[in-house]
Amino acid sequence: MISSFLNLFKRQSSLSKPNSTFDSQYQINQLQRIAALENAFLFDNFPLYYRDRKILIPLLFFSEDRGIYFAEKLEWDFEMLQGAHAEPFTQQSKTPSTTYLNAIESAIRQKLEDVLSFDATPCNRFLWFNRLKEEEFDSLDPSFHELLPKEKLIFSDSSDESILYKLNTLAPLSDLRYEYHKIIGSLQSHTLILPSQEYPYGQLLSEEQQNFLESDFNDIVTTLFGEHNSGKSTLIVRKALLLLLQNPENNILIITPTIVGGEILRNELISILEYSALKIEHSSLRFYTPNDAEKIEETEYFKAATAILCDDSHLISKHTVDSLIQHKEDRWLLLSMYNNYVPISGSSFILYNHYQKNIPVKKVTTTIKNTLMTLLVELRSLMPSTAKDNIMIILSDYSQLERYKESIDEYFGLNTRIIKEDFSLQYQSLDTILLTMSEFTYGLHFPHVFLIVPEEEENYTYALSRASESATIISFSNLSEE
């Protein structure tokens, strides 16, 4: 009956628009206070993306003990409603039967069904008259009371106790627990770090990551700072996706230091789309690795872009970064970089969190002559307990890549992969031991990393950040041996 009333009432052109200066923040604070008391969560203007649609839910209230509540804010005051008469739609009405509240509930249920396969979370609706007092509603035409049961209405002067009583009446306490990460994570799955064995329902972005995601930087240059493993690449993918969800007319260019790193980010984006039941125009998002031989400002990708997101820009040539800044025009340009780099004129955003685990690091010292044999011995001790595609070896000498590959392949009967600047997943896979240099490891994360470095090298934190379970540093002396 609420749905029928809303469809009819909103069509009445004789109603004047509410005063735009009205501030409903008091009621928002009131509902937030109630949510805190109930260990629940309140979202004001919650954006729900499903397939290629966006539905803005004016109020969404979630309780792990009772489920989902959602509401529409009705800013009609007593002067507007006085003397009005409400009638339900008839079967012959040409007005669509699906109202805004019906569309919200349908989208919520479809989203949960697509993401979770099966879900029975209660979903209850109510109306919020944030400009109408309860006694004013009582004096309206009786037709309003017939169509709008007061137990589903919240008024501008409703007390905390009254609101809480109505919410609890709408959704009785359940024996089941509706987990926050499972339900809200599914509804906001475009901001979710995808499920893993450790986190079966995924992880929501941190508060600082969410703040960056929701910020509007317009057409300026923004610098995103963060330590290794602070989530910069994670944010760039989700920011690009959100820009396209908010406005499908956008054209996003993501610039990465290596081809394979860009391919890994693209695969991550595709996984998010599939998991989240989202649909975007793939041609609106391009991944590009600069070639110093060409002028990036003259490429078609650059010309078509409305926003340019450059990941790990400190690994990209200064010439390319300078060109991006010089020719950005009215585009938004994002440059992510390691904390040690100097901010560029514009705005800056810092990620303080660090998600690198405290992994065990083994240090082995050897001579330059015995470096390769030391590596083979260390690999032999590890390989019985781990798969070959969990291992990456990082060298400091480009000229030694082929020699190390030949020796490892012969010793273990493998076909290792060498990752250089032109490596692409279109032609090869990452299903074996990898050999590479530190500057080519962007986007690569492996359980076990071996780092071959001279003794005097001190800064190899970036290379070690590529490991998730263990790292072995094999350092050698460059002194000539007698």
- The radius of gyration is 29 Å
Shape: elongated
What is the average per-residue confidence, as pLDDT, rounded to a whole number? 88
Domain module tally = 3
Q: How large is the share of residues in beta strands?
A: 15-25%
Major sheet summary line: 6 strands, parallel
Q: How would you explain this protein's 3D organization?
A:
This protein is of the alpha/beta class and 482 residues long. The protein has three domains: 184 residues, no CATH class; 164 residues, 3-Layer(aba) Sandwich (Rossmann fold), CATH 3.40.50.300; 117 residues, 3-Layer(aba) Sandwich (Rossmann fold). It contains 16 helices and 19 strands. The N terminus is likely disordered. Strands 10-9-11-12-8-13 form a six-stranded parallel β-sheet. Strands 14-19-18-15-17-16 form a six-stranded parallel β-sheet, with helices on one face.
List the helices and strands and how they pair.
Blueprint: H1 2-10, H2 25-37, E1 41-50, E2 53-63, E3 67-74, H3 78-81, H4 100-116, E4 123-129, H5 134-138, H6 142-147, E5 153-155, H7 160-170, H8 180-187, E6 192-193, E7 203-204, H9 207-214, E8 221-226, H10 232-246, E9 252-255, H11 259-276, E10 285-288, H12 300-304, E11 307-310, H13 318-326, E12 332-337, E13 347-351, E14 361-367, H14 371-382, E15 391-395, H15 401-412, E16 417-419, E17 434-437, E18 446-454, H16 461-464, E19 467-477
Parallel strand pairs: 3-4, 4-5, 8-12, 8-13, 9-10, 9-11, 11-12, 14-19, 15-17, 15-18, 16-17, 18-19
Antiparallel strand pairs: 1-2, 2-3, 6-7
